[in-house]
Write a structure and sequence with these properties.
alpha/beta; single chain; elongated; Alkaline Phosphatase, subunit A; 19 helices; 9-stranded mixed β-sheet; 2 domains; 560 residues
């Protein structure tokens, strides 16, 4: 500082104190923002649907206890506790953000033990949709976000701890006033005292314990397989000579059939389909299955149905893929069917095809599609079924075929949606270039009007149902058996909070002897399941199907 400046400040005391006042103002603003940030972190719920004014107008119990602890500690210990507490709170905040994302998509919180393998497929998805540069950018931004949240939370807690140490009396009064407010303040429908942070930590601690034991629990479940050693001559005897197609309709959940906003469109398609099939000489039966997942994770549902094991996390899925579990596909192949996987969503190497027991696997590149994408779907459902028909069922005198076919047209973002065309016009798919198309990402639904998203979802399910019915009517015969089902419910932007995991399932056949075999299931007539129709865990289907169409096992086989 120059001599002239010093003399001017002595001559003008107001000018000398102005920088100090500004610094103090900045200090209090920064401190206030730190306090507000910590408050929001503590009271914010881990479910985005609970983000209401009432939830944030609460007194965090953890904050009150934290201030009391800081008040009684000496300076050095206070800073150490604040540092550790800030880091832990920052990590908990990151977990809360993960919970919010998982709840919005999968109806459940993030699992600290079992969900890390899902990050790999997520990164692969980004790479496929936006390229390697986008993949790298997403990884870097995610890492910066995680580090930034932890650092910001820690620095905020340290700053507040310093204020508490320097203003002990004011901090004591503030805690007392907050405690009084917690006892007297009333906000309609919302408890005034919040313990969200503690509840989140406790819930995840319990979840970690369950996750750590899940591998052993799954090993015990998978060790028992009633059909492990059943010879092919005793398997699926009631379907000899039939072509069997198991079609998974993406995001086709119970809400599509029963939600007042969705059902008028979907139920009309189901009722129309039932009439069309009946007029063509087909019968159908429908019921409900409970999927292990919701909002996403189609591969978990497909593995559950085909393996007869409950696959609700990636660890179980990977363990299953490394096992010798008998799948429905394996059972058909053991009984001399040609087992086929038609998987239009697979765009890179897929070693899982060998586990499921497919003879050939028709991935996206193998199906010869020359048209545009429709949202997430690499090709329309009608093209997928047409390509399967040409490759497998159109050959005169072909061997009986069993096919698993995940259909994608009803996958988020549910727009744009192709329209049905004459099967003779499908060709190589170039005809779809005349339709509105696009490559919108599934997560684009979260930036749109929910009412419009729900309308698009209903129309996409309508398209998939109409396509399946049309396929049976066009290419079906006495030897075609179609099983179609939903893999999981759609995202909560469609269903709302609290939706279950039930999905419809239907069996369609021209030969009445086929449906006679499932008469004991209690399913209702038609392709629309009744509200009171039986509900099974999806993992029960394999054994019920093999029992209905083959010889029931006498002893459950146990793996060594």
């Amino acid at each position: 500082m120059s001599l002239g400046t010093l003399l001017r400040r002595r001559a003008d005391p107001a000018a000398a104190t102005a920088p100090t006042r500004r610094r103090r103002a900045v200090t209090w603003v920064v401190t206030g923002l730190a306090g507000l940030f910590v408050l929001l972190v503590l009271v914010a719920p881990a479910d985005f649907d609970r983000f209401t004014v009432g939830e944030f107008a609460r007194v965090p119990l953890e904050g009150l206890v934290g201030v009391v602890v800081l008040l009684v500690l000496p300076p050095r210990a206070r800073r150490v506790v604040a540092l550790v507490g800030g880091v832990l709170l920052g990590v908990l905040t990151v977990v809360k953000l993960m919970d919010i994302g998982f709840d919005a998509v999968l109806y459940r919180p993030f699992d600290l033990v079992l969900d890390w393998p899902l990050l790999g497929p997520a990164v692969d998805y980004v790479k496929v949709t936006v390229g390697t540069a986008g993949e790298i950018a997403a990884i870097v931004l995610t890492a910066l976000l995680v580090i930034g949240v932890v650092v910001l939370t820690t620095r905020s807690v340290l700053r507040l701890a310093d204020v508490v140490g320097r203003h002990r009396l004011a901090a004591t009064r503030a805690v007392a006033l907050a405690a009084i407010a917690a006892l007297t303040w009333v906000f309609p429908g919302v408890p005034v005292v919040s313990s969200n942070a503690v509840s989140l930590a406790v819930d995840h601690t319990k979840q970690v314990g369950v996750g750590l034991h899940d591998k052993e629990a799954f090993a015990a479940e998978s060790a028992v397989d009633a059909y492990r050693d059943t010879p092919g001559s005793q398997l699926l005897t009631g379907l000899r000579g039939k072509d069997v197609v198991i079609a998974f309709v993406e995001s086709y959940g119970r809400d599509a059939v029963e939600d007042p906003e969705l059902a008028p469109v979907v139920d009309a398609a189901l009722d129309r389909g039932t009439r069309t099939l009946k007029e063509a000489g087909y019968s159908s039966r429908s019921g409900w299955l409970t999927s292990p997942t919701a909002g996403g994770g189609s591969w978990l549902a497909q593995a559950t149905l085909l393996s007869g094991l409950w696959i609700d996390n990636q660890q179980r899925y990977r363990t299953l893929m490394a096992s010798d579990r008998l799948t429905l596909n394996d059972a058909f192949r053991r009984a001399d069917w040609r087992s086929v996987g038609v998987v239009p969503g697979i765009t890179q190497a897929w070693p899982e095809g060998e586990f499921f027991g497919y003879d050939p696997v028709y991935a996206a590149a193998d199906l010869g599609y020359r048209g545009p994408r429709f949202g997430y779907a690499t090709m329309p459902d009608q093209y997928t079924l047409s390509a399967f028909q040409k490759a497998e069922r159109s050959k005169p005198g072909h061997a009986p075929v069993m096919a698993s076919i995940p259909l994608l047209s009803s996958h988020a973002p549910w727009s744009p949606i192709p329209r049905g065309i004459d099967w003779d016009d499908v060709g190589d798919g170039s005809v779809y270039n005349t339709m509105e198309s696009g490559n919108q990402a599934p997560e684009s639904i979260f930036g749109r009007d929910p009412k419009g998203v729900r309308a698009d979802y209903a129309r996409s399910v309508e398209y998939s149902v109409d396509t399946l019915v049309s396929y049976v009517k066009t290419y079906g015969d006495d030897n075609l058996v179609l099983v179609f089902l939903g893999d999981h419910q759609p995202a909560q932007i469609v269903t709302g909070e609290g939706a279950g995991h039930d999905v419809p399932i239907t069996v369609v056949a021209h030969d009445p002897a086929v449906l006679d075999r499932v008469s004991s299931w209690g399913w209702n007539d038609g392709i629309k399941p009744a509200p009171e129709a039986p509900v099974w865990p999806m993992s029960d289907f394999r054994d019920k199907f093999l029992t209905a169409f083959g010889t029931p096992p006498t002893v459950a086989a146990v793996s060594p």
